[in-house]
């Protein structure tokens, strides 16, 4: 009987190389400003972040977003969110639309993503000890391209991407789809860095969960690094 691990991606297995972990969207938007309008270089990432606290599908996880059922529809929605944010920073509508396209291109630039140093060694070792890996992520439609570019695809059996299925963690529907993929498993654990989306959401769906690369007293199990997580899982029968 198989064992399955459900992995978050961004902040858990990999991250965008910008030195601003957890603010990949803000940094992509700032890079677009620096590239297209360097005269506005006084704008800081902290000026952008407050305008990105709503509008993204995962800001309303209780709602289905199945109407954003293609990459173009999904990105059209996201570009509108970014354009609105740019206009609040005093850019014209035309400039904001131009910047949102540039920010999109920068966000999905494969060269800007990397894995944590412990990701491949731990997933590989766990795989040899009978653990199968599924990624369950709130991300962009290009997530599979990013994962394959990073060499992670060889270790992953399935990718359940919110931008593809129209449900975001912690919506129980995304976890239901993961449970279907892992049907008949002896052990199933969700692993992620977000207490709400990854941990409490999984537990509400009846899945054991482990918080990594973060700390929160509400998490029943938590580890700073994947190597410590690996030691914990190796004792599960």
Can you offer a commentary on this structure?
- The chain folds into two domains: about 5-15 and about 115-235, HAD superfamily/HAD-like (Rossmann fold, 3-Layer(aba) Sandwich), CATH 3.40.50.1000; about 25-110.
- It is built from ten helices and eight strands.
- The protein has helices at about 25-35, 45-50, 70-90, 95-105, 120-130, 145-150, 160-165, 170-180, 195-205, 225-235; strands at about 5, 15, 115, 130-135, 160, 185-190, 210, 220-225.
- The strands form two sheets. It has a six-stranded parallel sheet, sandwiched between helices. It has a two-stranded antiparallel sheet with strand order 2-3.
- Strand 6 (about 185-190), helix 9 (about 195-205) and strand 7 form a beta-alpha-beta unit.
- The protein is elongated.
- The termini are close together.
Summarize the structure.
With 237 residues, this protein is an alpha/beta fold. The chain has helices at 24-36, 45-48, 71-88, 93-107, 119-128, 143-149, 162-165, 172-181, 195-204, 226-233; strands at residues 3-7, 14-16, 113-115, 131-137, 158-161, 187-192, 208-212, 222-223.
């Amino acid at each position: 009987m198989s064992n399955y691990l459900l992995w978050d991606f961004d902040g858990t297995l990999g991250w965008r190389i910008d030195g601003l972990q957890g603010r990949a969207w803000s940094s992509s938007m700032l890079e677009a400003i620096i590239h297209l309008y360097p005269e506005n270089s006084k704008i800081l990432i902290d000026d952008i972040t407050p305008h990105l606290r709503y509008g993204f599908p995962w800001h309303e996880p209780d709602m289905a977003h199945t109407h954003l059922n293609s990459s173009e529809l999904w990105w059209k929605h996201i570009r509108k969110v970014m354009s609105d944010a740019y206009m609040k920073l005093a850019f014209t509508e035309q400039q904001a639309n131009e910047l949102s396209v540039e920010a999109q291109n920068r966000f999905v630039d494969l060269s800007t993503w990397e894995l944590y140093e412990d990701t491949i060694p731990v997933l590989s070792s766990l795989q040899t000890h009978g653990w199968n890996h599924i990624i369950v992520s709130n991300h962009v439609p290009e997530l599979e391209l990013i994962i394959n570019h990073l060499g992670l695809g060889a270790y992953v059996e399935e990718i359940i991407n919110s931008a593809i299925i129209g449900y975001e963690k912690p919506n129980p529907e995304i976890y239901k789809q993961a449970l279907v993929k892992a049907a008949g498993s002896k052990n199933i654990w969700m692993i992620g860095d977000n207490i709400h989306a990854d941990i409490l959401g999984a537990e509400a769906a009846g899945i054991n969960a482990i918080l990594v690369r973060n700390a929160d007293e509400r998490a029943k199990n938590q580890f700073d690094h994947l190597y410590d997580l690996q030691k914990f899982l190796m004792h599960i029968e």
